[in-house]
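Question (not urgent): is this output format expected?
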Amino acid sequence: MAGKVFFSVSMSLDGFIAPETSEELMGRQWMELQRWVFPLRFFRENLKLGNGGEEGRDNDIARETYERTGVSVMGKRMFDAGEQMWPEDAPFHTPVFVVTHEKRDTWERPGGTTFHFVNDGIESALDQARVAAGDRDVRIAGGGETILEFVNAGLVDEFSIALSPVLFGSGIRLFEGVDAGRIALKQVGAEHSPRVTHLTYAVRER
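Got this back:
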């Protein structure tokens, strides 16, 4: 179990990673936030949107993030939104552990994605995810509340932000309620493209 625990999100310049409600997903602001990823060859192929697409460093980063991920962990809010929007062949192609109070049987999808529902907290979900991931990494997929819970519990090793040139004004902030007295960061990477700036940080206890 040598892998890292990480998250990787797109974020607006004013610190938001999603609109306030799931009904606003796929709206104008969210589409602007994610604009950098839609043309990418890897994204198009992974979601079976057709052949072709842009290559280059943005595409490499999207592919590398996918390839390092052995398991994803997410909260119930993200799962509920995704259950309505993901194609039948969900885009993870790995086990996914959903942190929830709802009791539900394992849900297997075509293409290798299997959702497991965990009712006893983030530590239990992470323990199960680490076993399933083997020597690959565990990605905390979201949403913002779940990411923050893992960060404040000291369970995240590193994270990356795709900083998009868009302003939200309101919505779900990535670090709203972070335990800043406990968390220290070290910047370990910064790359930019015409659409987005990729920032990577290691996380440690202060």
